Structures are given as C-alpha cells and as structure tokens.
Amino acid sequence: MSDLQGSSEPRFVQRNQPAGVPPLELTGERTLPDVPEENYWFRRHLVVYEWIGRRVAGQRVIDMACGEGYGADLLAQSAETVVGVDANPETHEHARLRYVRDNLRFKRDLISTFRADADAVVCLQTIEHVEDPDAVVSHFASLVGDGGAVYISTPNVLTLAGKGAERSDNPWHVHEYRAEEFRALCERHFGSVAMYGLFHARKLRAHALAIRLGWDTVHSRLGLTKPFYDRFTPAISSADFALRESDDSGLTGALDFVAVCSR
Q1: How many CA atoms within 13 Å lie on the side-chain side of 82?
Q2: What CATH number is associated with residue 79?
Q3: How far apart are CA 214 and CA 44, in angstroms?
Q4: Would you say 60 and 143 are in contact if contact means Cβ atoms under 8 Å apart?
Q5: pLDDT of 10 higher than 60
Q6: Which of 108, 117, 192, 214 has the maximal Cβ count within 10 Å?
Q7: How far out from the chain centre does Cα 68 lie?
Q8: What share of the chain is helix, strand, coil (3-state, %, to 5)?
Q9: Would you call 71 helix, strand, or coil by DSSP?
Q10: Which element (helix H / strand E) includes 40?
C-alpha cells in the first residue's frame, strides 16, 4: 500500500467546496474529503464512522477531535444530537459553515476539557496524537453513564510503520500502538472493552496481493504508476474495508484498531 499511503502532502487542497466555505489544506495531521489523492485515507476513516453511526441511532453523541466535520455530520444522520469538538480554529470554522443540521453543533475546545451530557463519545485516529492518553480516556469515561459507550480508534503501528521500524515517520504522532498496548490503555478505564480490527477487502485486498506479487516493480518499470493510481485511489469506497472483532492475536495485521468501551 505504499503508493496509496504516500498521498498526504501539503500541496493538496479540498476541491468544490460550497459557497462561503473556505477549503482546507491537507497537512498530514488529519484526513479530508474532497481531495481525490487522499481518498484512501478518507474512506478508511469514513467506514468506521459509518459503522458507529449504525450503533448510536437516537443517542446524544460527542465527536471528539472532529476535524473537518464530515464524521460528525454522518453521525448526526442517525443520532439524536451530535457535538463536534475540535481545537483548531480553521477546521472548526470550516465544519461550522459546511455542515448545518438542527441536531448538529460544533464547539471549539480541547478534547481533554470539553464536557456535555452524552450517551456516546467518539474519538477516531486521535489518541496517537495525545501526550497523556490515560487522562483523555479517563475524561471520556466520565462523560458517559453506565449505559453509554466510548468508541476510540488508532492505527496499528505494525502495519503503519515501515518494515523493521519501531514507528512511522508521521510527525504528528506522539505514540503508536500495538493491539495489546491499546487494549491495556482502554481497560485501565473501562470494565468492558471489545476490540475490532479494520482490514482491506475487495479491490484493496486484491491490490495488496498484487503488491506482494511484484506490482510495485511492474507499474514503475512500465511508467504506469501515476495513471493507475490517479484512477484507482479515487475509486476506493467504504466497501473496500472490513471491520471485525478479534482477540489481540487476530489483530496483528489490522490497519487500525477500534475499541468499543463501556463502564
């Protein structure tokens, strides 16, 4: 997947934004919709939001570190209410202007301090950016009652980092997790933790097989790299990922971990 995972470069800016909504630049800190070159990462995040959206119907939801706002907007399609929380002023303003629903609002605040009544807290692809993850996860636990749930995701360092590397070269990441580390973090603050792994499916699974068979060498030798990925990457959809529950041994090859935590 090296060809797809090298797409987060600052030169890319969102296309075709609604009138009055300032486009955001892709910096590598967060993913964005409406950037064709970023579609692999966007769909990889979106599929988890879609899965959670089916579980939070009718609930009061907080989307922590909501970024551009697409996930909070998706959750609001089924939830009773959604608050999207993000500290970045540019992304907050963009989200506020772009995603307008009666049951959706955006708040500029820190994920470690924002408080509101909630049935569910969602925090995707963020805990790896946090200096004190225990404090943050403990805070999330305090926001949901005994019947509530907290959904946290993070990339798997074993598939994110290069072969033989201890971690990736993402400058925004403070700590990258193995399955057992991530589970232990969540279990320190919750009585019940179900762990899921996100895996490639359909054409992404076929692409991964092709890479193992030498596709990287073939497309570069034939000069097909850019034309191929210019078509392949924007065509990726949520259906090209699969989320399944597993113990830690079954999560070794997962792209991302998703923990569903309850008290």
Answers
A1: 31
A2: 3.40.50.150
A3: 24
A4: no
A5: no
A6: 108
A7: 12
A8: 40, 25, 40
A9: helix
A10: helix 39-53
